[in-house]
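Kindly draft a sequence, keeping tokens residue-aligned:
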Amino acid sequence: MIHHSQRLFASMIALCTTTAAVLAGDEATPRDLPGWGRVFDPARDCEVSLDIERDRLKIVVPGTPHVLSAEDPTLPMNAPRIIRAVRGDFTAEVRVLGRLEPGKSKTTYYDPYHGAGLIVWQDSSNYLRLERAVGLIDGRPHPYVNYELREGGRLAVSHGITIEDRSLFLKLRRRGQEFSAWHSRDGRRWVSLASVDARLNDRVEVGVVAVNSAARTLAAELERFSINDSQGSMARDR
């Protein structure tokens, strides 16, 4: 017989090591992670776990193509994401921890790439990504902020901002069709990036994403995720 304390301990361990395994595609029945959102793992081969005590999310992406490049129909749209429904204006923040080390071997024609950060998702043809990333450029690892918008299945905006390879805060703000972005080392002093106009729906899904085009496994860790949503639609997320 299991004592009450043993049952409680087992339940806490299960919560703190929640692993997502869902069906392929956007039609999947996702797993909810408290405070973060619903897990989508189209390839069904990533590990997503939440340390509830530290509110730290870990996304382990194997060294096979896990990308989001709508402009190329030959590539899979299968990067794992954890998202929740938001309507209207919002501000989202997250901190991407640790080192990103894609190595020298790639799995697509893209250079080896490890990236993790924020995503605003309407559908597979229309979305915005803001990621802390490291790509192999001219044979050397290059850390940068990757800021990209896809509209109608094409790459409409792409900015790469060189940074130091260290933990980084990212922030996205929507005001109507205008999206503004920032990055910060300490979460207090912010460096502004370009603003972009995006004709996304009023209701979108906002959250975090991890992208891997390298043969080396990506183990992305994120914390301090928040969404400030003036309409309160986060509370009605289903």
Remarks:
- The first helix runs from residue 4 to 16.
- Residues 1-29 have pLDDT under 50 and may be disordered.
- The chain has one domain: 4-236.
